Amino acid sequence: MRISVSVDSNRQFSCGGPLTLDSERPEIHELLQKAGAGDGGAVDALFARHRDQLHRAVALRLDGRVAARCDASDVVQQTLMEASRRLPQYLQRRDIPFALWLRGLACEKVIQLHRRHLGTDKRAAGREQLALPADSSAQFVRGMLARDPSPSQTLMAVELAERLRLALAQLDDDERDLILWRHFEQLSNREAAALLGVTAAAASKRYVRALERLRGVLINSGE
């Protein structure tokens, strides 16, 4: 049985060049130039444009046990403070789009919090309690299995979300990240490739392998 997941095939298998400075939207490019010239208002505008995106990325990955002690908004604020400190270094290189650079800093903060509060020494946040959205997770699992469940097998959305969370915990870190980036954070293949530090072609192959492996885990978990 083949995987049947609703994704844009052009995005999924895009093998375009790496994301660079020229990949920035014109308004972001202009704000970055102003920020580099010392315009504090431009820095504030840059952070404001990306705050919601960062909040979604953090909320998705933040372990439920940690979220009870540290709200996602607090993590975003810490991320932006760190971004402000590192911004001069980033502006000298600009080897990755600004939004992806911020996302990387946010992931670093989440990892640090998990280590501090849960005693983990690995990136494996998925082995903990990922806060996956129930409705999206249920739709994703049904798509992965490529069939509608029978009445006797029908599960509530929250149960399907739990099944997906447990299945993701069995994937490697990069495999899990690819699934989260592509299906829950709506990143393109080229963006995921930039975050992984690989070519778009390599990211596509990894993504397909991750889907195949996840599907196998989900099928086995339903037996």
- In the CATH scheme, the class of the largest domain would be Mainly Alpha
Proportion of residues in helical segments: 55-70%
Order of helices and strands: HHHHHHHHHHH
Strand-pairing-aware structural class = mainly alpha
How far apart are the termini? 16 Å
Report the CATH superfamily of the largest domain.
Winged helix-like DNA-binding domain superfamily/Winged helix DNA-binding domain
CATH architecture of the largest domain: Orthogonal Bundle
Total helical elements: 11
What name does the CATH topology of the largest domain carry?
Arc Repressor Mutant, subunit A
How many distinct folded domains?
2
Low-confidence stretches: 1-22, 121-127
Shape descriptor reads globular
Total DSSP E strands: 0
Strand content: under 5%
What does this protein structure show overall?
By secondary structure, the chain is mostly helical. It has two domains: 1-19 and 132-223, Arc Repressor Mutant, subunit A, CATH 1.10.10.10; 38-119, Rna Polymerase Sigma Factor, Chain: A (Orthogonal Bundle). 67% of the residues lie in helices and 0% in strands. It has eleven helices and no strands. The chain has helices spanning 9-12, 26-36, 40-61, 64-67, 72-93, 98-118, 134-145, 157-168, 173-184, 189-196, 200-221. Helix 5 (72-93) crosses helix 6 (98-118) and helix 7 (134-145) crosses helix 8. The two termini are 16 Å apart. Mean pLDDT is 79; it is low at 1-22 and 121-127.
